[in-house]
Write a structure and sequence with these properties.
The complex is a heterodimer of chains A (about 375) and B (about 210).
Chain A: H1 7-26, H2 35-77, E1 92-98, E2 103-106, E3 109-112, E4 118-119, E5 124-126, E6 132-137, E7 142-145, E8 150-156, E9 159-172, E10 181-186, E11 189-193, E12 197-203, E13 215-222, E14 225-229, E15 232-236, E16 241-243, H3 256-259, H4 272-279, E17 293-294, H5 319-334, H6 338-351, H7 358-371
Parallel strand pairs in A: 9-10
Antiparallel strand pairs in A: 1-4, 1-6, 2-3, 2-5, 5-8, 6-7, 7-9, 8-9, 9-12, 10-11, 11-14, 12-13, 13-16, 14-15, 15-17
Chain B: H1 21-29, H2 36-55, H3 62-76, H4 86-104, H5 108-115, H6 128-144, H7 147-158, H8 163-170, H9 174-193, H10 196-208
Helix pairs in contact in B: 2-3, 2-4, 3-4, 4-8, 5-6, 7-9, 8-9
The chains are: A alpha+beta (about 375), B mainly alpha (about 210).
Chain lengths: ~375, ~210
């Protein structure tokens, strides 16, 4: 017995389904009277699509070449501006810089940060006290430097690596291709993403901590970010953030003389980091929730009091090893060593069946098998 | 004496194995136009069945819409990730083609009459006059409620498309599709509840089943 405020709607649906089923039985789908014409149209559409794809690819190559030439001409016509890079690397362009004091540091010389300038490995960008800058890759990845930030470009190949020396930036990383990486190093940690929006900040010594080292804060808006600090690694999800553990967070309550005393030797426990972060909220952090997922606890011996809150063994994995396996598989595939690539992917899925790269590994395996 | 034996498909040398869906889609996607016929033969039944169910076979546009759906299906292959079967994907594409066709031609009010035209209702024994009258009344009510809600109700509750698929067909979010479904059901229920003849007929049908 059907009840509820949509009773008659459900009875109606049952009536129509029943009638439709019988209708299908008594009036079968009409025979195909124009198969040849439709097949010919589809063949044309398939061919046109393939042709269009080739034209688009060729046009993209031509446009990219023309754009490169134009950029090179523009840059070489203006002395002092950086030259475009070429040869297997991604072009990182200063899309715009606003405010005053934005600088490009190249080979120990400093010059104003040029709009549309192309950055090279080794370059550093310093945003002014009231300035900011947006850097962009052609795949849509954008890095927005806030004021008084200092970012160095360390690599622009398949692995794009940056060092944030001070200040903070927000990055919107487009989905990366096979074998590509996007890594940001700070003085005390390393951040790796595969397509996300996140913020990294490096702050000076905190008055609330007993140590005098600068600290990093990572906040994630979209996607997932892996943060490595020392031999620890955490995964941050949207809305989460991570800060370098403040060793001796009680320091703020201690007198100045006490803060100068040697720090107690406290190895930062990965599970303790988020807990500490709750009490040591960065002044610039706007994140309301701080959590983290421990990934490499196999090497850790947590204090008994912390043990119950640790992740279960089944959730433990070594992300760096997964990265390495996946990267090795992709490198083998690019080199034409399909069997080796399959073995690596199989190893990855066997050892880390529920790891974050498991789905990608299975998809790649399927793709390789289909291509063979 | 000649002996006959059963052979499996592909056992004879030179007999090509039929392509499975994944390989067929991959080949078409890569631009192999020689497989247009195979792709059409593979997908035409579900395309035609969907158009037939939503528009009616007697519609003048039936053949054209099946062809349009076939071409649309080709163009949609780049978005097909294999998350559902090729049949489900093709059915959703065909339903979207019909939906757009109906909207473009301003036939929203007529579609429900075409959906189950009285002459198509099975003439089963003594139920025939009752069923015909009930279906006509149902169609009249469906034609009077907001057509997006009526379509959502029809696609989901009658034709069995999931909310995700209904959202894709009608070009809205899943949340919007769900809202339309809930409101459409409620509106239809209220209309029928205020129609004692139809409500009584539906109650009687439920008792019989």
């Amino acid at each position: 017995m059907i009840e509820g405020e949509d009773r008659y709607a459900r009875l109606t649906a049952r009536l129509l389904r029943s009638a439709g089923k019988q209708q299908a039985e008594i009036s079968p789908v009409p025979a195909d009277t124009q198969r040849d014409a439709v097949v010919a149209a589809m063949a044309l559409a398939i061919a046109a699509k393939a042709r269009r794809r080739r034209v688009v690819a060729a046009s993209a190559v031509v446009l990219a070449a023309a754009a490169s030439v134009l950029v090179v001409l523009k840059l070489t016509a203006q002395p002092g501006l950086p030259e475009a890079k070429s040869g297997g690397t991604s072009a990182l362009v200063v899309e715009y810089a606003t405010g005053r004091g934005n600088q490009l540091v190249r080979a120990a010389s400093t010059q104003p940060l040029p709009d549309l300038g192309v950055l090279a490995v080794g370059d550093s960008v310093r945003s002014g006290e009231d300035g900011n800058a947006m850097l962009g890759f052609d795949n849509g990845t954008r890095i927005t430097l806030s004021s008084a930030a200092h970012l160095r470009v360390d690599a622009l190949g398949a692995t794009r690596r940056f060092s944030l020396l001070s200040g903070h930036f927000q990055a919107h990383v487009a989905k990366l291709g096979q074998g590509e990486r996007f890594v940001v190093s700070t003085p005390d940690s390393e951040v790796e993403v595969r397509g996300t929006v996140f913020t990294v900040a490096v702050e000076g010594p905190s008055s609330t901590c007993r140590d005098k080292a600068s600290r990093s804060t990572v906040s994630v808006s979209e996607g997932a970010v892996w943060v490595r600090s020392g031999d620890k690694q955490v995964v941050l999800r949207p809305g989460e953030s991570w800060s370098t553990p403040c060793q001796g967070s009680q320091g703020a309550a201690l007198p100045a003389t006490a803060r100068a005393e040697p720090m107690p030797s406290v190895a930062p426990s990965p599970i303790a980091e988020p807990v500490r972060a709750r009490t040591h909220r960065s002044a610039t952090s706007k994140v309301a929730r701080v959590t983290g997922q421990v990934l490499d606890q196999e090497e850790l011996s947590p204090a008994p009091a912390l043990a119950p809150s640790l992740a279960s063994p089944s959730s433990v994995s070594r992300l760096a090893q997964q990265n390495d396996l996946f990267s090795a598989a992709m490198a083998a595939e690019r080199a034409g060593q399909h069997e080796l690539a399959l073995r690596k992917l199989d190893e990855l899925t066997a050892r880390y069946p529920s790891g974050p790269l498991g789905e990608s590994a299975r998809a790649e395996r399927q793709r390789i098998l289909m291509a063979k | 004496m000649t002996k006959l034996r059963i052979v499996k498909n592909g056992e004879f040398p030179g007999t090509p194995e039929p392509l499975d869906d994944a390989r067929l889609v991959a080949a078409v996607r890569s631009g192999n136009s020689a497989l247009a016929g195979a792709f059409y033969d593979r997908t035409r039944p579900v395309l035609a069945r969907t158009v037939h169910r939503l528009l009616g076979a007697a519609d003048n546009d039936f053949d054209d819409l099946v062809q349009v759906a076939a071409i649309e299906l080709l163009h949609s292959l780049d978005r097909y990730r294999g998350d559902c079967s090729l049949d489900t994907w093709a059915s959703t594409i065909a339903a979207n083609v019909v939906y757009k066709h109906i909207r473009r031609r301003g036939l929203e009010r007529n579609i429900f009459a075409r959906e189950l035209a009285p002459e198509d209702v099975p003439q089963t024994a003594h139920q025939h006059p009752v069923l015909r009258a009930m279906v006509e009344q149902v169609m009249r009510h469906l034609g009077q409620i907001v057509h997006e809600r009526a379509w959502t109700f029809l696609l989901h509750d009658v034709h069995g498309y999931s909310l995700d698929e209904v959202a894709g067909i009608t070009g809205v979010t899943v949340a919007a599709a769900q809202s339309r479904l809930v409101r459409g059901r409620r509106e239809l229920h209220e209309r029928i509840a205020n129609d004692p003849d139809l409500a009584g007929g539906l109650d009687g049908l439920e008792d019989e089943s």
